[in-house]
Recover the amino acids of this structure.
């Protein structure tokens, strides 16, 4: 186990150095070396991509030294890795603006929608996001040497209905007018006494006149 760990560490270090060299001056020989190192680390998808790229570049460069040897190395990597990867076809019927689709940690180019792409066997997490759309997320079972398909569709985000808050209603109550003051029973009593007095005076006057 310790020996395997040391080999993997050495391969990873060599892989990083080769990447740096390829970024400065890419060549089919470096691509072949990278493909073989990814193969040693069991990174099958990366190894397959590099092997195909190596074969394509070697075929186009007629002046390449050791072209047949380099092509043979890349073909050996491709033949070993290709049967041990699965393929996933993402069917995107209506790709909204700003759509980003990832399989695991790898972004899928829009040109590869509807095209079977190599994927490591096992469970693959597919995530798709776009502005104004609901996030799409699915797990897909991938088998070595088999093709899996997935329809990717993102629903439009529906905004919640706006809540309109009416301003508070101000009710103005007019001032109440004071009721007119009642004269009370006093004037009525006095008026009644005066009437009775006049009546008695009339009676006494009639009696006095008759006596006379």
């Amino acid at each position: 186990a310790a020996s395997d760990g040391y080999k993997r560490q050495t391969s990873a270090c060599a892989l990083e150095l080769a990447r740096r060299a390829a970024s400065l001056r890419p060549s089919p020989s470096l691509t072949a070396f990278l493909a073989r190192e990814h193969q040693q680390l069991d990174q099958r998808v990366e190894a397959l991509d590099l092997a195909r790229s190596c074969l394509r570049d070697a075929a186009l460069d007629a002046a390449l030294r050791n072209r047949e040897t380099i092509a043979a190395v890349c073909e050996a990597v491709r033949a070993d890795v290709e049967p041990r990867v699965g393929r996933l076809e993402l069917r995107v019927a209506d790709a909204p603006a700003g759509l980003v689709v990832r399989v695991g940690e790898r972004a899928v180019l829009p040109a590869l929608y509807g095209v079977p792409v190599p994927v490591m066997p096992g469970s693959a997490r597919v995530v798709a996001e776009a502005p104004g759309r609901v996030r799409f997320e699915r797990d897909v079972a991938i088998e070595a040497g088999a093709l899996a398909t997935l329809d990717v569709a993102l629903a439009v985000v529906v905004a919640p209905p706006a809540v309109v808050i009416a301003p508070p209603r101000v009710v103005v109550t007019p001032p109440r007018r004071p009721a007119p003051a009642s004269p009370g029973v006093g004037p009525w009593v006095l008026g009644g006494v005066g009437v009775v007095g006049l009546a008695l005076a009339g009676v006494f006057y009639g009696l006095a006149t008759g006596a006379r």
